[in-house]
Amino acid sequence: MTNPKEKAKKVSEETEEVVEETVEAVPEEVEQPSAEVEEQLARPLEEVLGHAERAYAAFMEAQRQVANAYRTNEQQIAKAYKRAEQQAENAYDQAIKEAMQARDENVTAVLKARDDAVSQAERAFKRAKDQAEKECEARVEEAQKKREEALAGAWQLRDETVVQAWNIYAKLSR
Length: 174
Known about the structure:
Blueprint: H1 4-25, H2 35-173
């Protein structure tokens, strides 16, 4: 398709050529033309006016085509902007969705790790508590055994002392 400006320029140049040819064809000395000559002169003038009208009509058509081209271009730019805007919006939504999904996965992993750590700590606490209980029971048993041994030793010493005292008393009483 030809450029509307080039088309208007071409029509304008053609009009100028026709006008120049017509001006050159008219003699310099103007005499009173006869009816026949006037009729012949009127024809080129009508032709020039016809060319001028066609040139003006072509110019107006070219101007309409330029305006339509600008409108079409503006509409295409608006559509391209809307597409770009929609793509940016979609990319933004996708990025948010992925970020939230990653966050949820990380939170789930951290909660699992925390639960595992709590479970391990509870098991370690139970083992330590059981060990402390066993050690306590062992020490209590050992203390009880020593106490019983000490009491048995003390009872035996008492018995020996009582026997000795009676022996001394028996010797003295004789």
